[in-house]
Design brief:
9% of the residues lie in helices and 34% in strands. By secondary structure, the protein is mainly β. Helix 1 packs across helix 2.
Length: 469
Amino acid sequence: MASILLYRSVKTMACRLSMAENPLSGLLIAYLILLSLGRPCSAADVEAVKLRQTVTLGIEEPLSWTLKDLPESLHADATLGLLKHSALSGQVVHQAKEGVRGLFETRAVRTPKGDLLLMFPEGNHYAAGSGKVNDMLAYRSKDDGITWQGPRIAFDIAYSQHGFIPLIPSGSQRIYAFGTQPIPDQYSREKGRFENTPIGFRSSDDDGYHWSEVTLIHPLKDPGFLGMSVTRMTETRKGTWILGAHAADWSKQPLETEQYLLRSTDKGASWQLLPGSRPNGWFDPNYRRMDEGRPIWLQDDEVFFMARTPSGRIWSARSMDDGQTWSSPEPTKLIHPDAPPMVFFLTDRKTLIAFHHNRHAGTQYTGLSGTMDGMKDRSEIWVSRSRDGGRHWDSPRFLFANACEPNPEKNGWFNHQVSYLDAVIDRGTIHLFCPHLWNRALHLTLREADLNHLPTKDELRSMHSKSDR
């Protein structure tokens, strides 16, 4: 697929070559220069967004920052559209084409050959229609995220995609791409079940350039299982694969969801559905909601999962037998709205890091609506760490917040969005991938050594007080 960003880069370079009298030659020379330099299709020329004059962090004892008068450690970035800590840097990898609704979950993986491979759907959300409403795009970086090549269509298929859930089994060179598979004749959109589709996977043996046909998952005791799956999965020490999936019923007002885990001990040949066949999934009894569960193997036979609820907290459960049986999910201390958990290991593979929003309005809950107050809670990213497998978490530290002026033509689902982060964390560096405003794919980087420099809420308050003097 021809890249709009490549065209923009080439056009800009051609202009700089001052060859207006022969624009075709200018474009050709610029293109050859780009090739000779190995320059990818980056978004270096993406126009700066319009920033707010002030950004307010938090809803309890909120702090309003004037972007023209920030302390040294905070920075308003007009290219990224963020109020961020100065230790965080980044770039816009992709901006959604004009005329499309946007882009969706950004997911990335370090490939077996060492590249960073980023994928996301561009178009409309798969549940918006039963036909083809988006394409899964892929970008690749061969220099650890400095430059990016793309976009190209990852899967040339006749139906839409939701997200890329990567898995590279231990000791393997094969990349798997798990996820929701809304094959039109494989599910029904009636009675509020339009998000529930088959779950399946593809594989690549050439570092993610080409992919197999899809294999659909049919759990042994519930072979007709339909759901949604877009959060990270895990492989345990024993080689067991565990993938989160939830089933939703939008005919209920507000909607209801049940969280399940798909577990395979034979490399995807067969699957078990946990905690049992439908309708026996997990949910928060106060809302009859739990979804977007993220399992992560800890050590030995211990596996942890975190899940999204509307309760104002991320919930979690734990297995001590390789994911066969689980404790009852309970709320953690991590403050979070109706949005997915985003939890990963740091390079030491001992410390968990959770990216969470650290705010929850708790008003106007309607099940999930772009106009409810809770969408504003998706505007901030804080980090908390756990050194004991998620049993205890340290104080949240501020990383970044959306700083863009809202678009009056769009609702809060777009105007505040920095949620659904993905991360590749290795070699002491945190690579973050953010579908900012559901319109721009951001690649952000932070050194693990700088995590302790991020301010807590009390430290932010102290900084704010000094700036008012």
